[in-house]
Design brief:
Two copies of one chain form a homodimer. Chain A has 107 residues and is of the alpha+beta class. Chain A is 32% helix and 42% strand. Chain A has three helices and four strands. Chain A has a four-stranded antiparallel beta sheet with strand order 2-3-1-4. The longest helix of chain A has 14 residues, at 74-87. The radius of gyration of chain A is 14 Å and the shape is globular. The two termini of chain A are 19 Å apart. Chain A binds chain B through residues 1-4, 6, 9, 13, 15, 17-19, 21, 48-56, 58, 64, 83-84, 88-106, and chain B through 1-4, 6, 9, 13, 15, 17-19, 21, 48-56, 58, 64, 83-84, 88-106. Strand 4 (88-105) of chain A pairs antiparallel with strand 4 of chain B, so a sheet runs across the interface.
Amino acid sequence: MPIANTPPAPYYAVIFTSLRTEGDNGYGKMAEALEQLTATQPGFLGIESARDGLGITVSYWESLDSIAAWRANARHLVAQQKGRDVWYEQFQVRICRVERDYGFERT
Amino acid sequence: MPIANTPPAPYYAVIFTSLRTEGDNGYGKMAEALEQLTATQPGFLGIESARDGLGITVSYWESLDSIAAWRANARHLVAQQKGRDVWYEQFQVRICRVERDYGFERT
């Protein structure tokens, strides 16, 4: 997975940090489908994800409205419920305004 | 690594996303020392980190001033230079204000 190619700040980020329960329980398939669906949402700017024990997924958005719309998406609501019922031991969601950013790329 | 136990919002987050170069090149030892040093900084609230190919480290802070002070820390400056010289193929740093958060913990 590449580093997300986001536009100049300000924009918004959702930091989703999670600890999974044991077993897959359909998580892998749903996570993949959901990531593809996320990318089609209005205001979506990019996504970055990594897991080794702790999972961290950061999605980037144009506005708080676009984040709220994605949170209320019907298929996403089903996944959110499944997350509480089955997939996650614990999670934290943090809604952020990206104030500034900078980067480095080896040439 | 547990999910960071942060105080009520607002607070600040630094999202550091990176792609490593090949080989360790002293990275593991420095990363561990640096993470321990981070935790002693004024205004530090917590840290979360995961890597599978893409690396994501999110550190949480009381204020933009505490982030600026850590960025200017002498040992951190040495690590930043080594990052550009040796360890990273690419990275992005995003400075964020956490506007709100919510979580779930299985009982």
